Amino acid sequence: GFKTSQILIIFSLSQKTMPPPKQIQAQLSTLQDTEEFDVLVVGGGATGSGCALDAVTRNLKTALVERNDFSSGTSSRSTKLIHGGVRYLQKAIMKLDYEQYMMVKEALHERSNLLDIAPHLSAPLPIMLPVYKWWQLPYYWAGIKMYDLVAGGQCLKSSYVLSKNKALELFPMLKKDKLVGAIVYYDGQHNDARMNLAIALTAARHGAAIANYTEVVHLLKKTDAGTGKEKVCGARCRDVITGNEFDVRAKCVINATGPFTDSLRKMDDGKNTNICQPSAGVHIVIPGYYSPDNMGLLDPATSDGRVIFFLPWEKMTIAGTTDTPTDITAHPIPREEDINFILNEVRNYLSPDVEVRRGDVLAAWSGIRPLVTDPNSKDTQSICRNHIVNVSDSGLVTIAGGKWTTYRSMAEETLDAAVAAHRLGGGPSKTVGLVLEGGQDWSPTLYIRLVQDYGLENEVAQHLAATYGGKAFDVAKMARVTGKRWPIVGNRLVSEFPYIESEVRYAVKEYACTAIDVIARRTRLGFLNVQAADEALPRIVDIMGKMLDWSDKKRTEELEAAKKFLYLEMGYRSRSEQLTGTTEITLDTQEVANSVLIDRYTNRFHKFDKDSKGFITTVDVQRVLQNISVQIDENALHEILNEVDLNKNGQVELNEFLQLMSAVKKGQVSDSRLAILMKTAEESLDLRGPVTVDRSGGGV
After folding, report:
1. What pTM does this model have?
2. What is the pLDDT of residues 17-34, one digit of tens each?
3. Are 646 and 577 in contact (CB under 8 A)?
4. Residue (of 425, 396, 415) closest to 53 by Cα position
5. Could you write out the DSSP letters of every residue in 401-428?
6. What is the SS3 assignment for 388?
7. How far apart are CA 76 and CA 70, in angstroms?
């Protein structure tokens, strides 16, 4: 028998000679011109892309359509973990539930496979479980050791127990009070949207016809000559961007639409009842200093019994998730009460020295889990996140439920059912060990070659290697010369993130059609810091506009759509609400009377508003800065004022400034550039000393 490493090498060698994926127009032509596919997959999330890859590697003629972008739904809004499910194992043991036990065992096998086939996008992550009661130490230790045992030879690294002092050394921001020790176990972590895209691109490279922004209008049916029954034989599709409609015929149609499963099932048969019970999971992103670089935290029992993860990701910290019933929507919005619930849970586990501020939330999002309905269940938390594969009377194959980690085995099971129901042939699944796009030529030291061969910054090179794997060289080749001594190539989109302009150009080759595709899924800027994403948007639209020949009207539409996406779906709205929700200065009881503080802030404002106009503009700020020998680029200054200019009239009124200072005082807004700049300038006016102002994180 072959070892896994030998299998990986064989697949790696076989993929090197494969042609690149067709561009989007060629893919659309293939969809329209092919007489009949063996399989048409509807849905471009992890499961749908996995089904397309499984089908095409069985030598089945495969098509996939997605009405939005690949991974635009739940698959890009996960906790970013590749895990077996510690929580499910606990339930399996407590309730002697063999089905849950097998689900965990399958997920642990899939975890191992996913880390092997996409080493650039995934890695093991140690997760700490802090223990605050002595009796819990052996209880949790036994549970975690069982997790290791179930993984068997695929255990990433063995779990271990830490003393209180060692736990605090590794996680210094942890609450010391009553801490008795901690247990550390290992799970996998990945870049979910990029992983989803890698699966879809690998399917395309193997010959699948895939198209995003292509929606199913209705299913095509024909009468079976033998039985006289109607059978699904394809779908009427519409190109969302052009409005063009066309038929895609297929022997088998697979419904892999996640939370939208029931809408396609009802297209098949209007009498079908709902099988999906959607649940919303909200996550927030806070600055990286809230967690160590390579150690996550698990809160096994929150105030309402849910599990909260606290994880380092892309040099930031992710905290989540919630689990509440929700309506199905393509544009879920994070609720303020969920954001505050997560913040409160985080406060419970962090040292009182660490002030967890609402203003530190840099982004927030909500993802809809497609849980399979259990009619006996009282709430969504008790639903087993397993999956079902169903073949309707008309032959529509539906895959529903499941989780990110098990996408491959779900796809295999779905194709096995499809092959059996439609007599497609093609042989068994070949996706175990099949290396995904970018994984073939990746190595942990690949980034060094990028620095040496192209003159990229070290941080940028590491980011490109971890995002594109062996394809990072293609991105580097597209990078423009900076005109500086160093780096030689690679202009950043925003200064504090390693995303560069050539990634936008490369994104178009990866089927990015909109600015949202770039900020949310080709790069992850929108998920990491909405303010930084907002600043990068004009440049992104400019680059895409030139490549895709957008008119001025189209560019404006793209900019507005992306801003709306950040505002509603990525939590940017919260920032304005934190400002506008504050109408007066409020102080702690120990502070001096409100009027003293208001006077101080008013005096600070008037040092900039010399003409007593009642507002300040960039000209006023520039004048003061010149007096203290500070220079700030005019565009940057416009951005700084725009953050506070609530009525968007190009100036900051006294009332707006007081609202800002009150929000800063309450911790609702953190790192406001205008607040810091004006405070520093006021102090420097007295001292007449030089001062530098760097761009801050900018909370939402």
Report:
1. 0.85
2. 567 777 889 999 999 999
3. no
4. 415
5. E--GGGHHHHHHHHHHHHHHHHT----S
6. strand
7. 9
